[in-house]
Amino acid sequence: MTRRYASAGAVVVTDDLSSPHILLLDQIRKTGERQTVAPKGRLEPGEAPLHAAKREVAEEAGLTDTHYSAYLGQEAYTFTDNDGTPAAKTVDWFLFTTATTATTPARDEGFIQAHWLDAPAARQAASHPQFQQVLDRALAVITWRAAHPLPFSRTLSHLVNQVAAEAEAVIAGHSLAGVGLCGSAARGDFIEGWSDVDFIAWNLPPTSAAATALHETVSEAAQRHGPRASLHLADSHRGDARRLGPLYDMKMRVVLRRVGLDTAVIAGAAPTLTDAPELIDLAGDLAVLHKFAVGRLAANHHTESEREDAARRVLSVLSSAGRLFVTRRAPEVSLRLPDVAEALREWPDSELRLLLQDYDAYRRAGADDIEQAERLAVRVPGALVAARSMLEESASL
User: Fold this and answer.
1) What is the DSSP letter of 263?
2) Domain end: 235, 268, 301, which one?
3) What residues make up the domain containing 304?
4) Is the pLDDT of residue 249 over 90?
5) What's the domain count of the chain?
6) What is the DSSP letter of 303?
7) Average pLDDT rounded to a whole number, residues 298-318
8) CA atoms of 334 and 295, how far apart (whole Å)
9) Tell me, what DSSP letter sits at residue 228?
10) Distance between CA 199 and CA 222 in Å, rounded?
11) Torsions phi, psi of 382, nearest 5?
């Protein structure tokens, strides 16, 4: 029998996007081995990865003034335990930012010195090659945000931490229930004033008092901190529990499949998914997205707020289309837009790929020009039709 462990850790960086420095700790283990690592440690009973990562940073580095900024995915590996038992371990990694470099390493745990290193020095100093991959994901997020620049959102951090803390108490009576953070708030490309904060809950009866309380928790946190936020409930078939239609069922399936990749568990237990391959009707999903986009564009939008909301939702459909292609063809690829566009390079001149690149450039520049967003949005239906045609052509070959 394989012994299983679950841990969480954080890449902690200074919040100066132009010159970020990364926290690494020198540790002497009980075996006498010396290593240079990022803060991480095992989850305590009933503890979710986000809280565990924050706790480990505080305990090992003495650093409490940190802010959630992104989820970097889950690392998984196997090894042989000290008593010879086969073991498997998962580590959920987060990106935290901080305005201070004041640290107090936990000497009772063997941490003897803290370093704040630039990216090349951090990659060279890190003892474990697997961590370098995590570090590269963090640096990709930072590089993307540094272009404009787009500072990491403190209001996002406050909102996510509040929901995570309160959700633990809300779902305490449901042992299999959990809450995840998904979308741009998880991927690290959240943009103030443009992006929504999306939460998802699973194994929670939609009519239960806990589900009602969880909706209230998200709503109150959004009102308190400012960003738009929503909670979606998954049913036992991984569809939308509120029966809002195929668009929401489709997004629910993708989000649940991405737990540990682009969806972070912030409260409760991780969802249990079968290993059986899921049937994906990509052409049918594209048709659903096309219908939604056409409907939004055809509606009357009188106020600036209505215009912006329509453009945001239609461009969200564009992003969903690109991500559906990636989850089917290269499920290990990150769903950040530049990665999605790169994954579609086999169709270099496709309107879908070109439009995804244009939309990513728009977001990278701050997403604050409504007229430009509308110009991008009107191209979406045509790009979806062309993508479906290309899909059908490739299937016939």
Assistant:
1) B
2) 268
3) 282-396
4) no
5) 3
6) S
7) 92
8) 29
9) -
10) 12
11) -65, -40
Same domain, yes or no, for 44 and 142?
A: yes
**Last residue of some domain: 100, 122, 146?**
146
Q: Does 228 share its domain with 290?
A: no
> How much is the pTM?
0.93
3-state helix/strand/coil string of 107-138: HHHCEEEEEEECHHHHHHHCCCHHHHHHHHHH
**CA torsion sign, 336 to 190 to 54 to 32?**
positive
Please give the helix or strand (H or E) that residue 154 lies within, else none: helix 154-170
- Spatial contact of 139 and 10, defined as CB atoms under 8 Å apart: no
Residue 22's DSSP bridge partners are: 13, 117
Amino acid at 384: L
d(CA 153, CA 212): 28
Q: Cis peptide before 149, with omega less than 30 degrees from 0?
A: yes
In whole angstroms, what separates CA 338 from the centre of its chain? 15
SS3 state at 269: coil
**AA identity, residue 31:** T
310 close to 377: Cβ distance less than 8 angstroms: yes
Q: What does the pLDDT average to over 298-319?
A: 92
CA 32 to chain centre: 37
Which of 23-32, 233-242, 267-276 has the largest mean confidence? 23-32
pLDDT of res. 228: 95
